[in-house]
């Protein structure tokens, strides 16, 4: 595994860069669970800062990270699939090469999962940010469900959303496959965080 000093994700242009973010030690420790789960859900209302702590973590981690910032146009499956390949190309080079003939939500998800299973020699993080854009888009939601079901253990999915996605959440949590960080109370700055930010 790459050392933190030479981690390639420090140069990943897709990971958001924010201003000074407090070293929210308690939340950062919780986000360390990303390493130990196949799926991590970060969910809170729009007034809560979801992205900064997540972006801070992946800037600091020594795992290769693919950051996929979703847009409303990706409610359309082809746009979603090709943007996912572009995002993953950073951590899984060559994933786009044989994808032109792939169609359908199940096939697109299986193509990604199979490629990662066959080509990853180290663990990576794949962040899907603003996942709420896919809500009520049937093919996009089906793609997500299949990706979550098929993704290999070497790929740690992080879903960042304003709302809970259409996934079998209770089953995933119960099986230990998913870690959930949900709600404004768990994501907001604490008095201790504010104190650390002033130091």
In whole angstroms, how far apart are the ends? 33 Å
- Widest sheet: strand ordering: 2-3-4-1-5
The helical percent reads 25-40%
Strand content: 5-15%
Q: Please work out how many helical segments DSSP would assign.
A: 8
The gyration radius over C-alpha positions equals 16 Å
Number of strands: 5
Structural class: alpha/beta
- Tell me, rounded to a whole number, the average pLDDT: 78
N-to-C series of helices and strands: HEHEHHEHEHEHH
Task: Summarize the structure in words.
The structure is a single chain. Residues 1-11, 18-22 and 184-199 have low confidence and may be disordered. The protein is of the alpha/beta class and 199 residues long. Helix 4 packs parallel to helix 5. It has a five-stranded parallel sheet with strand order 2-3-4-1-5, with helices on both faces. Strand 3, helix 5 (138-150) and strand 4 form a beta-alpha-beta unit. The protein is built from eight helices and five strands. 34% of the residues are buried. 38% of the residues lie in helices and 15% in strands. The radius of gyration is 16 Å and the shape is globular.
What labels would you give this structure?
199 residues; disordered C terminus; 5 strands; alpha/beta; globular; 38% helix
Question: What's a quick, concise take on this entry?
Answer:
The chain is α/β, with parallel strands linked by helices and 199 residues long.
Secondary-structure blueprint of this entry?
Layout lengths: L24 H7 L7 E5 L7 H10 L3 E6 L7 H12 L16 H15 L4 E6 L8 H13 L4 E7 L7 H6 L3 E5 L1 H4 L3 H8 L1
Parallel strand pairs: 1-4, 1-5, 2-3, 3-4
Helix pairs in contact: 4-5
